[in-house]
Write a structure and sequence with these properties.
alpha+beta, 5 helices, 35% helix
Length: 158
């Protein structure tokens, strides 16, 4: 099946099997390996990308479902060589350890901050509740998102 998908602002046309998962399309067809493939059951959340601006777990979406749509991956967070405040926050506040869950956490956090620029700790925890981090205990992830919220406001007003 022939599909055209815009990924991180760039259109791609490929012939794919109708049952190809979006995560495999991104990783194997487009070489965008920042999106991690973890469970195939939508439990871990490492594969979260945006589909037309909405976070989705790409291990449970078919590539053909993205045809004609916009996909944003973790590679699309940095702009002109500048890391997104969420990426900086995870670095500054040690929001990652092994890094496996990080792409999905970053995409979810960016979506949260775009829709709720000053989230509470409870709102951050609820936003990432569909994702599993086996390393950090989530404290540093929450701190990282708060850091990004505080610095996103400063950058937007600078």
């Amino acid at each position: 099946m022939n599909i055209t998908v815009t990924v991180n602002g760039r259109p791609y046309t490929r012939d794919v099997e109708p049952r190809l998962l979006l995560v495999h399309f991104l990783r194997d067809e487009l070489d965008l390996t920042g999106t991690h493939w973890g469970c195939d059951t939508s439990n871990c959340g490492a594969c979260v990308v945006w589909l037309d601006g909405v976070p989705v777990k790409s291990c449970t979406a078919l590539a053909v479902m993205a045809s004609g749509k916009e996909v944003r991956t973790v590679e699309g967070l940095e702009r002109d060589g500048e890391l997104d405040p969420v990426q900086k926050g995870f670095t500054e506040c040690h929001g990652l350890q092994c890094g496996f869950c990080t792409p999905g956490m970053l995409m979810t956090a960016r979506w949260l901050l775009d829709h709720h620029p000053d989230p509470s700790e409870a709102e951050i925890r609820e936003a990432v509740s569909g994702q599993i981090c086996r390393c950090t205990g989530y404290e540093n992830i929450v701190r990282s998102v708060r850091w990004a919220a505080e610095h996103s406001v400063r950058e937007a007003t600078s």
